Amino acid sequence: MSQRIQVFDTTLRDGEQVPGCQLTTEEKVVVAKELEALGVDVIEAGFPISSPGDFRSVVEICKAVTEPTICGLTRAVEKDIEVAADALKWAKRPRIHTGIGSSDVHIQHKFNSTREQILERAVAAVKYAKKFVEDVEFFAEDSGRADLQFLAKLTEAVIGAGATVVNLPDTTGYLLPDQMYDRISYLFENVSNIHRATISMHCHNDLGLATANTLAGIRAGARQVEVTINGIGERAGNTSLEEVAMALKVHKDLGFETGIDSRRLYPMSKLVSEMMRMSVQPNKAIVGRNAFAHSSGIHQDGHLKNASNYEIITPEEVGVPQSEIILTARSGRAALRHRLQLLGFQFEKLDLDRLYDRFLLMADERKMIHDRDLMELVG
Ligand code: KIV
Ligand code: ZN
Known about the structure:
With 379 residues, this protein is an alpha/beta fold. The mean pLDDT is 97. The chain has helices at residues 25-38, 52-64, 78-87, 104-109, 115-130, 148-160, 177-190, 210-220, 241-250, 265-276, 297-305, 333-342, 349-366, 371-378, and strands at residues 3-4, 6-9, 42-46, 69-75, 94-101, 135-141, 165-170, 198-203, 224-227, 256-257, 293-294, 324-325. Strand 4 (69-75), helix 3 and strand 5 (94-101) form a beta-alpha-beta unit. The strands form three sheets. The chain has an eight-stranded parallel β-barrel, surrounded by six helices. It has two domains: 3-275, TIM Barrel, CATH 3.20.20.70; 293-378, Orthogonal Bundle (Recoverin, domain 1), CATH 1.10.238. The N and C termini lie far apart (59 Å). The longest helix is centred in the last third of the chain and has 18 residues, at 349-366. The protein is elongated, with a radius of gyration of 24 Å. 43% of the residues lie in helices and 15% in strands. The structure holds 3-methyl-2-oxobutanoic acid and zinc ion. Zinc ion (ZN) binds at residues 14, 169, 171, 202, 204, 238. It is an enzyme of class 2 (transferase). Belongs to the alpha-IPM synthase/homocitrate synthase family. LeuA type 1 subfamily.
């Protein structure tokens, strides 16, 4: 029996903070409905106190979406919490996500405070949020760099105050996967009430390790992942939803599952990329243009013999129409023959050999060979 991992999508909050990615309320509602269809468990709809537009977006998402929990972000500030509660009034399942910095860097240089005062503010914020909603998530910002004993104390205190979820963000994308595993394991061993709350992973990708760190956190006991479509987010981005969902699906033997309908991943990626005017890097795992494209002769030959030689996921599984064989000067005869067959041409070996020599000359010159080039070649 697999254990269910809750997928908390923050495309519309952490993702939307990226310069140039801002969406209108109407666009956000479209994305939220698609996230619901994709099967996410929680949608972080915005930061209601940040602007009247964000407040309205949270309200409209609460009205338009019924299945997932709708979450609003706040600082550990009473006014923020009141405004978020007000925006979330329309939600069937509202959640307030409140929190404060937990590393000494943040405590000293951002809050000009002490660990003791931070702990008091954290507990007070959770208790205050509980007056409005049952489901309160606490985030310990920059927990990746926090003193571990202090983090354990803070986690225990906010769970004691009623937090249903404790989010342990690696805000600066600092940790390595083994460190993440050890730190989360430490908390499971040292926080007496930890089983009363869900532990959540929220990783940033500054070292390109957000997905690896998220998976390490799950192996250590976390049961919620905070992710964005295409991994968009501050600086190098957040953990990418599609990567975590597919890693858990491909490695079912680990014993975890999500509610994500993987066939919707590629259409969802395209929608977010188009709406946010943020292109997806071609070699992006799962949803990049080249994720199912084969271009070297050895790979193409192997792929044409059996797709599983070079694909661990079928394109259909993630909603990509089909794999692609790209013809370049690195392609072999098998790929050329395959493409010609699709265009309705059959060649005997000798003729194919001759054509292949001319194909290579053309490919060296034109880099990529398209069907119109092949038509010219066949003459
Ligand atoms: O990265 C972070 O710490 C955050 C929190 C506000 C949850 O986005
Ligand atoms: Zn973040």
